Amino acid sequence: MNEQETSMALASFLLQIKAIKLNPANPFTWASGLKSPIYCDNRVTLSYPQVRTFIREGFVKMCLDKFGKPDVIAGVATGGIPQGALVAQELGLPFVYVRSEKKSHGMNNQVEGIINSGQSVVIIEDLVSTGKSSLNAVEALREKGAIIKGMLAIFTYGMDVATQNFKNNKCDLFTLTNYDALIQKAAEENYIRENDLASLVEWKSNPQAWSDARM
User: Fold this and answer.
1) How far is Cα 144 from Cα 152, in angstroms, rounded to an integer?
2) What is the predicted pLDDT for the residue at 193?
3) Is 174 helix (H, G, I), strand (E, B) or coil?
4) Torsion angle, CA of 158/93/111/126, rounded to 10 degrees?
5) Is 75 exposed, middle or buried (0-12, 13-18, 19+ CB in 10 A)?
6) Cβ–Cβ under 8 Å, residues 182 and 14
7) Which of 155, 147, 130 lies closest to 59, judged by CA?
8) Which of 38, 68, 82, 172 sits 20 to 30 Å CA-CA off 127?
9) pLDDT tens-digit map of 138-170
């Protein structure tokens, strides 16, 4: 299965198990306050062995194809932790995870687990929106002296701001599927009406303007 086939198949899975919901007529509100026609919770995939296996195998293949075998796999808290652990187990590699911020007690760790300066790392994330929280993990690992080979994620909204943020931080990002594949598959499989498609495309081109118009 090539990357495009994997992307479309996974988009179909995510829709089937309702890990991703689409509702342009009654948009969701993100934690940032942004109104969105899409809501994604990839933690749901862990409850479905077939989907969980598909994602793990996809990550392992993409990791080896894009970066080769690193010294360590890192997961981004919280959604990237179980996915990263599954990948590390499959590859027989050490695993660490990165908190959103340093603990306020104990050892004040942000990176949990053993990682040594100079070790190469591939980071596993479940979802990329603007990239801010994902790149916070990159910075925390670099502070430990890790060499970041890149990041892999299940899904990205494909926002321009995320593309720019990853470029500015010199971190390559590859994802198993993405927003464009998702809305194409949603239309093909009748998860959305034809007149919803234009709204979903409009949101992708300018999420803030789309949101502001619905406040």
Assistant:
1) 20
2) 87
3) strand
4) 20
5) buried
6) yes
7) 155
8) 68
9) 999 999 999 999 999 999 999 999 999 999 999
The CA distance from 4 to 88, in Å, is 24
- Give the model's pLDDT for residue 107: 66
* φ/ψ of residue 150, rounded to 5: 155, -175
The CB density around residue 117, as the number of other CB atoms within 10 Å, is 8
Phi and psi torsions of 20, nearest 5°: -120, 130
Are 20 and 14 in contact, with CB atoms under 8 Å apart?
yes
SS (H, E, C) 26-87: CCEECCCCCEECEEECHHHHHHCHHHHHHHHHHHHHHHHHHCCCCCEEEEECCCHHHHHHHH
The conformation of residue 138, written as its DSSP 8-state character, comes to H
Confirm if 35 and 214 have CB atoms less than 8 A apart. Answer: yes
Tokens representing 99 are 């908190």
pLDDT at 104 over 70: no
Domains belonging to the chain, first-starting first, are 3-205 (3.40.50.2020)
Distances (CA, A) of 193 to 66, 99, 139, 151, 169: 36, 39, 42, 34, 38
pTM value is 0.95
